[in-house]
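Why predict the complex rather than its parts? Because the way molecules touch one another can change local conformation, and only a joint prediction can capture that. The input here totals 1326 residues.
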Amino acid sequence: MDVENYLKQDDRLILVTGACEQHGYLSLLTDIRIPMALADAASQQAGVLIAPPLNFGCSPYFLTYPGTISLRLSTLMDAVEDIVRSVYGQGFKRILVLNGHGGNSGLKIRLTELCAQLPGLQVQWYAWWMAHSVEAVAIRHAIKPDHANWLEAFPFTVVGELPQEDKLPPYVPSDVMDAAKTRSVYGDGSFGGQYRVPQEIMDEIFAACLADILHLLKFES
Amino acid sequence: MDVENYLKQDDRLILVTGACEQHGYLSLLTDIRIPMALADAASQQAGVLIAPPLNFGCSPYFLTYPGTISLRLSTLMDAVEDIVRSVYGQGFKRILVLNGHGGNSGLKIRLTELCAQLPGLQVQWYAWWMAHSVEAVAIRHAIKPDHANWLEAFPFTVVGELPQEDKLPPYVPSDVMDAAKTRSVYGDGSFGGQYRVPQEIMDEIFAACLADILHLLKFES
Amino acid sequence: MDVENYLKQDDRLILVTGACEQHGYLSLLTDIRIPMALADAASQQAGVLIAPPLNFGCSPYFLTYPGTISLRLSTLMDAVEDIVRSVYGQGFKRILVLNGHGGNSGLKIRLTELCAQLPGLQVQWYAWWMAHSVEAVAIRHAIKPDHANWLEAFPFTVVGELPQEDKLPPYVPSDVMDAAKTRSVYGDGSFGGQYRVPQEIMDEIFAACLADILHLLKFES
Amino acid sequence: MDVENYLKQDDRLILVTGACEQHGYLSLLTDIRIPMALADAASQQAGVLIAPPLNFGCSPYFLTYPGTISLRLSTLMDAVEDIVRSVYGQGFKRILVLNGHGGNSGLKIRLTELCAQLPGLQVQWYAWWMAHSVEAVAIRHAIKPDHANWLEAFPFTVVGELPQEDKLPPYVPSDVMDAAKTRSVYGDGSFGGQYRVPQEIMDEIFAACLADILHLLKFES
Amino acid sequence: MDVENYLKQDDRLILVTGACEQHGYLSLLTDIRIPMALADAASQQAGVLIAPPLNFGCSPYFLTYPGTISLRLSTLMDAVEDIVRSVYGQGFKRILVLNGHGGNSGLKIRLTELCAQLPGLQVQWYAWWMAHSVEAVAIRHAIKPDHANWLEAFPFTVVGELPQEDKLPPYVPSDVMDAAKTRSVYGDGSFGGQYRVPQEIMDEIFAACLADILHLLKFES
Amino acid sequence: MDVENYLKQDDRLILVTGACEQHGYLSLLTDIRIPMALADAASQQAGVLIAPPLNFGCSPYFLTYPGTISLRLSTLMDAVEDIVRSVYGQGFKRILVLNGHGGNSGLKIRLTELCAQLPGLQVQWYAWWMAHSVEAVAIRHAIKPDHANWLEAFPFTVVGELPQEDKLPPYVPSDVMDAAKTRSVYGDGSFGGQYRVPQEIMDEIFAACLADILHLLKFES
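Output of the joint prediction:
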């Protein structure tokens, strides 16, 4: 009944999408935990409601790493469509999708199609690791962000013992590889570079993303 | 990498399905929280791995209650199929589905179809609120269990102020009603009866379910 | 052209769903014949039109019994949706689904979704063997109803020589079993109990169901 | 259990597909009744098993005629696929599809795809009204066969009072018309020509089809 | 921007469907090239816009001939639906589908369904090789038209050395054969008859089709 | 029959995907023409076969620009899957997808899933405008590449009069906008920057892409 009251004064919702997939020495749910932490922080400041996270995304290339669970892209798109239609029917018109996983980007196509079908629906999409603000932090500190390296090594995602040595980024022979090939290329699962950076840099990253999100939640057009 | 080690000595997995739907004065995630609590307790005793919960189920009848998010049954079946195929490919052969929501029971059909396609796959299905052991507790205390009444009012699901008075179960004109009709029938969302019972009874319920689950995790056939 | 005249004064339709599946010593079409017989009787009294039956349902667990034909649940839901949309477009607004088969219950989800999309559509769902009135007859005679036992042994469903001896209900290790396992559990296909009861009891069952159906055809809300 | 015995000595099955659609003064189930009558006659002579008919086909163009029920072609293909897979898994390898309805011809594509996936599966397709043998009868008697004219006016399909006068075949402006346009073009539903011919001619038609079917049931390749 | 101007004075579009499949000594794209050539000629005279061709159709029976690419019928129907919806939303209301391939005829069902959903949409369907006017040419010259024989041997489709000798049409045991069987029946891919006729006859065929198309483009109803 | 000979000595195929969508003053088929030109050039040097292009892609955001035709992403994925399965069954094992359109990138997920299902299949994906080599050319000349600006203005794509003045890149309020919003943001369709650069630079771009493609065609892993 709280949601009904909320809708009397706001029509915004944050939806977190991500993945359950290998992240080297980080949590299998890294791609959920990061956007969820950002959503929580943003919600505290902006008072915007957060939907329960969809804990699975598209990660077919990592299926040889046990613990990875991958939805077909068609399934993922259907699920997000069902979620959006459910809340749209209740009055949510402005939805910020906080996406934590690159394999999910096909969702933008389905969301665009939905915008054509559901009058008044506005959608913002934020893929935090691709933000200009995050790139700026990385450039400032001269470190290269990538999957399962320092970029995602937040205190709430690290679950294993991080190696001390940097990892040489492997040669990647193709953009489309099956899961067996992917594992032979990536080994421990990290895409290479530093495994960890000082916490101050992680705080900078987080703060930069949070600022972006708070801006997007204004839904200026 | 922990999952890889786990698979060397075990091939069991618990998958929690449920719903994000109105539960009167209880959490929108009641149907996830209860099976998840049971899964956690069972995992501590039996050491069986738990997959991240799928936070959404089939609740089209409650869509007029804001906060309810419903997947189409076809979407839900596809998502569970994708999850099962992902982990089956990694070596999980015995899966206990802890389902927290009645609208998801069509999943059993898809799971049966999967058993025919994936050699060696064994599936157990547990819908805790329909268990004989739960019925026995209810009969012993002469209380009638139902949606969003005392049956689901655990400490970790109550989020609102529970009414003191019992609710007279409403007349339900049809098994298939649209969401508007459903809301006019059910009002606050509870299906009626007592809103709360002493914690001892809730503990009995929980213990009964836990015992059932520990038995099912033996996958005796 | 008769249907066009019918629609000038009535907007009700009976749709029979069921299964083509093993029933031990009973017809493969038992789950169609019973609701169809009930529909015929109800139609004679209430003058409501009956659509041709959909002769197949969801029975993946019985596919090792030759003669069983199973639709995927997604196919079944699509077929019923197409049927409902076809007749709705012609003016049928009140539809009673007489379902003869437990594996089809996922249909209720799709029907609920359709009610949200097709204004004015009312659906009643009747699964005769689960009716309180049938339970009452069984309790009165202290006999336990189940799949392919006396409960379904009407004169128009019996096709084989019924055993004289009762069958001890087998131990069922799981709610979700593949078809091979199901056959090893159930053997001749009956779920156990008495194979036959006196015809008077069958008449009671039939009469109880018919009364229920005639009531539902009033579509009181 | 009879089917199991049958499979020990035969692996052929007849599957009847058709439609529930307007046929002017003939039964809505004309497209089922005719192939079913042929199947029955063939079965008596050749001893081949018949599956229950799928009572619905693709008739979107006739939906403005009340009583017509149309499946989407995708639904119909899925249903037939599910039927074929069900019986194939039990040992049926040679399937004769007796199709009674032109709108279903897309099924041949799906059946061909299935033949590539199910080793040893042989399918014959018979659309009786398009047979050379039927054409020969029509030419011999100088009468033009068409939908809902004499061609389908068997004793078991006529349900209304057939007009005495022939109908002038209407001008058909397009192969693809919506249902409203189709009705304005066809009026009473017949495509024109004679409504009835002497029973001897109908017997010739039936005998010609039966001979074809008995030949096809030999599955010579 | 040219299309926007076009739509100010016309709402017609030609859509070419066909196949990429073996045609004996003719191009794999024969079924695209012929309707595309007809579309170009018609467009020059009638000024109607042509959409880019959909280069693939349903040809599962020819998949053993390398170079054949077949879409599932469900995929093809979805693609054509997406195309029609795209252009309908922009103002195209009259669409002539120039189909070059027999395996695509299930498309007519989907197009009919679309006509019921998209108000004002008019569709014409032209399968050139089945036209009465083409049949008339063939009869006049006493030659039998068929797949990959003279009928399709236009200067812009012939890519191989055509045999001098006629081919005896093979015995075709079934309407539904898998691709291996199909190849064993048809050998070089032609369905038999003459491989080539004088260019004057081909010109007659082309002119007859063009006249038909120009008539259909008037969308008289 | 040429394809059969080809397969005796090679198992590579180039598949061109793209879009039919507005490109400002460039051809609606720009995203097909560019990769097709590259494919032709590569084929001449490396002798690799090219499949007919799939002329449509995912462009829902441009549907308000007449002439844009968009497939749903699910349709596009199904079509590419059907194409890959068709040719894989004939012996093509190494497929280079030359993609010309950003909205199609979800295809990589489906292709990865296919690699897991089709043993021995190798896929390379090349999105020319995102190549490092193209970026290097742009940086060298200090020009920013973008949709429908100079980057795509090849002699074979320019169909309108290109403006002399550069376009100021518009403010883009969201990554997910409906088609009406997209048009109001982008106006003439170009994403901004220079409309044209000297042909030498275009030649550099083309040469860089061609070199990349020739390398990828080696399928080194």
